[in-house]
Structure formats: C-alpha cells, structure tokens
Amino acid sequence: MKKLKRSARLVEMTQYLLARPHTLISLTAFADRYQSAKSSISEDLAIIKEVFEGEGIGDLHTLAGAAGGVRFIPRCDKEAALEKVKEMCRQLEQPDRLLPGGYLYMTDLLGQPALLQEAGQMFATAFADREIDAIMTVETKGIPLAYATSLYLNVPVVIVRRDHKVTEGSVVSINYVSGSNKRIQTMSLARRGLREQSRVLIIDDFMKAGGTVQGMIDLLHEFRAVVAGVGVFVESGEVDNEERLLHDYVSLARLTEVDLKTRHITVQPGNFFKETKEEQQ
C-alpha cells in the first residue's frame, strides 16, 4: 500500500479493524502496511480507541510484548439497542403476524439487513468474552441470524440439518423431542462440520420450550464440544419454568401474551436488556 496522509490512514485503519473483529493485529503489520513508524501507529490507534469506546462501537484491546498488538471487540450501546428492539417489538405486535399455535410470522424481519446487523451485534456483545470457536444453528430461519452474529465474532457457522444430505458425507444424527409439540424429530451434522472439543455458541430464531436448542446441545455432546452460550431472537414467555428445557440463554425479545380470539399480541424486550431496564426503574 502506498504511504497515506494521516487523515487517510486513520480512515483506512478504522475500516481495517472493523472488518477483522476479534483478530490480533500486530503493530509491525500496521507499520509495514502503512509504511509508518510504530510510534505513529500507536498514536493513531489511541485516537481510534477513544472514538470506538466513546461512541459505543466497541473496545480496542492492546496486548503488550513481542507477540502483542491490538484486537477490536465489537460492542453495542445497550440504550440505543433497546430503542431498536422496542421498535421491532411494535412490529411483531401487529395482529396479522399471528400464526396457528401462537407463533409469530418473522420471516420478513429476518430478511432485513439492518435489523440482522443490529441483532448480530447484540449477540456478539452478549457473548464477546466467551472464547467462541463456532456458531451453530438449525436450518432454516436461524441461518441469517447466525451469519450476522458470525460477522462480529469472526468465527465460522455450523448448520444443523433436519435431513441428511449425501453431499455432506458421514454425519452424526440424533433424535430429539420438540418442546412445542412433543414430537420426536431428527437433526444431523456432518462429522467434518465441527472440530471436536470446540466452544460453540447456539443461535435460534424462536424458542418456546427449548426442545430444538436442547437437541443441538445433545448433538454437541457427540462432538465432545462445549456450549459457550445460547442466543435466542424471540422467546415465548407463555411457557412455565418447569416446562422449559433450559434456563441459561440470552433473548432479544420476549413474547409475553397471545390471545388467539382477539389477536392481541404483546412483545417486550428480552433478558439481554435486563440490567438496562432495571436501571431505568
């Protein structure tokens, strides 16, 4: 790269960091890239760090030593994120979204790039310190959420299939009980799809009793993998704690009331915002 003026270098460095979250970049690499002294690079990084943290974009961690450098950790401002989720909740409360069984039609929302980007950043904020190796989801509606989250955590996505694909080679399959309808179903994952003993973040679009998520957890046990966390776009609040199969998860929204007769729907921000809501009260 040709030598840039400082203003241009700051812009390019910022873009470079944003495109490589959770990646350790050495000062030497920056110095070689921009043909500048390490002292100048350090001053530029200090400016970027101040802006990132001041604007709630994320943290810029500095690691000292010969093998050190900087690592950008994306974050979202919870106050701003709460307002965005409240707007999403208002959209989900539209009566025409109600489907048989008390489910909500969310496919259109999960197709909006801006909303997916925001949701991915929220999940990445919630699990930023979990040392995640991969993100797992089950086909199909959870896939966009998983990829949006992977952009901020910079880890691969593993997709669990409901049907075995011959193009995936040898697979591991398990039976699980769907928490919503109590039916026995099957899910599969290619043996080459996930390294053993990986730390995995599970992402799902909707959780009622948690049967599908529990199935993914059981599947991960076959790979001797560790469940690093569970993120849910919308959870159902109409399930008793005794009926719910898991309790350690992060939700962005919570479906608290569904009246099939009046078609009245109530959706509130999820437990990701618990601390924020308590501070406001």
From TrEMBL:
Start and end residues of each Phosphoribosyltransferase domain = 109-249
One GO biological-process annotation of the entry reads: negative regulation of DNA-templated transcription
Q: Where is the signal peptide?
A: none
What are the record keywords, sorted? DNA-binding, Transcription, Transcription regulation
Q: What parts of the sequence cross the membrane?
A: none
Every copy of the Bacterial purine repressor N-terminal domain together lies at 5-74
- Assembly description: Homodimer.
Q: Family assignment?
A: Belongs to the purine/pyrimidine phosphoribosyltransferase family. PurR subfamily.
Protein name, please?
A: Pur operon repressor
The uppermost taxa in this organism's lineage are: Bacteria, Bacillati, Bacillota, Bacilli, Bacillales
